[in-house]
Amino acid sequence: MEDKEIEKLIELETRRQRDGLEMIPSENHTSPEVLKALGSRLTDKYSEGYPGKRYYGGCEFVDQVENLARDRAKALFGVDHANVQAYSGSPANMAVYYALCDPGDTVMGLALYFGGHMTHGLKLNFSGRLYNSVQYQTGKDGFLDYEAIAKLAKENKPKLLVVGATAYPRIYDWQKLREIADSVGTFLLADISHIAGLVVAGEHPSPAGIADVVTTTTHKTLRGPRGALILANGNPSNPLKAVERTKENIPTLIDRAIIPGLQGGPHNHQTAAIAVALHEASKPEFKEYGKQIVRNAKRLAERLLEKDYRLVTGGTDNHLLLVDLTNKGVIGKEAEAALEKAGITVNKNTVPFDPRPPFSPSGIRLGTPALTTRGLKEKEMDQVAEWIDAAIVNRGDDKKLASMREEIRKFTQAFPLPGESA
Ligand SMILES: Cc1ncc(COP(=O)(O)O)c(C=O)c1O
Description:
This protein has 422 residues and is of the alpha/beta class. The protein folds into two domains: 32-281, Type I PLP-dependent aspartate aminotransferase-like (Major domain) (Aspartate Aminotransferase, domain 2, 3-Layer(aba) Sandwich), CATH 3.40.640.10; 284-412, Aspartate Aminotransferase, domain 1 (Alpha-Beta Complex), CATH 3.90.1150.10. 43% of the residues lie in helices and 13% in strands. The protein is built from 15 helices and 15 strands. It has helices at residues 4-19, 32-38, 60-77, 89-100, 126-129, 146-156, 174-184, 196-200, 250-262, 268-281, 284-306, 332-341, 369-373, 378-393, 398-412, and strands spanning 21-22, 49-50, 53-54, 81-83, 106-110, 132-136, 160-163, 187-191, 213-217, 228-232, 310-311, 320-324, 344-345, 347-349, 363-367. Strands 4-10-9-8-7-5-6 form a seven-stranded mixed sheet, with helices on both faces. Helix 8 (196-200) links the parallel strand 8 (187-191) and strand 9. Helix 2 (32-38) packs antiparallel against helix 10, helix 3 (60-77) runs parallel beside helix 10 (268-281) and helix 4 (89-100) crosses helix 9. The two termini are 25 Å apart. The structure holds pyridoxal-5'-phosphate. Pyridoxal-5'-phosphate (PLP) binds at residues 26, 88-90, 93, 117, 119, 164-166, 191, 193-194, 217.
């Protein structure tokens, strides 16, 4: 690159990823094919509208790109309609609110401090400011409390019930949630951003055909570029006709919420990269990848439990572990900092009913999707658990942490990033 400053920073970030263990559950390592699409000429093209109905000329090829992305998303998740234009997960959720609710309507989502996402009704987020947000919590045991959700829904009669999380280690009972939504006549949004890759792999039940709308980011377990999908059943109709907020009209309502409601031109390079990632996710190897993510998370959970780490809900069904560090006499940010010095990237996180403030919570979140992409399996998880424990125990000893970092750097050489060789 001619821009040496940026070139250097890209190299340093690549090296940071290569030499360390990436354990943030919402991150992954994309394939060279995904990166190629992202860095293509498609980024130059304006194409406001949808395939065949654009406000710009020259869309012959980007139309085909978007159609491929939509068709692959529909086939992979088994739905009638896919919108692939949302710039990322937050705008995708915003589009669903915009499509199905009016400002001031009541919406219900899992509170951020119990594992929900900001866009699920946090007061400081658009979803809590523009809408009357009612937040549910997990039970004391960290599991979703379906009875409490049903009771809160009966009391508040929301227009939209949002289910999904950034820090929930267990499986969602979509059928139960459908019954709750139906009991009060509310739309059900399943935000599967974290678990989409596991759904594709058959490792988590799919909400498709149960929830009214499904949103997902494309860059977490799905291992694509940053971006999002909005999936629904029903028929997209003439976009110029006024449409009522019925289930059948959801595809049209979603498409219109994206443009002209919230966005302008789609990011065609991103759409192409999503199409590539969806193709990769349709292969049998991806199913095996999803299964290995869960096997690795379960093994890591076992090993940490043996070392007396407290896991919220007592374990995991998916790709992540939420660790309550209270009994270890360390807080989340200290553990995060020590692990980073040792070359393991995690993030501090609140735990249910956290007595500590949200900016300095009691726990950390650990995930296996990125490590699994690099080929780590159960055996390596045993070693990872040793390192995690050693970094936390030796958090005050920078020399020990630095020598662990070197040990980890050497270890990672046998597990190259996608497209690199060992
Ligand atoms: C459940 C959930 N929904 C939505 C989002 C938002 O995605 P983005 O960061 O791409 O806006 C996230 C991201 O962490 C998430 O975990």
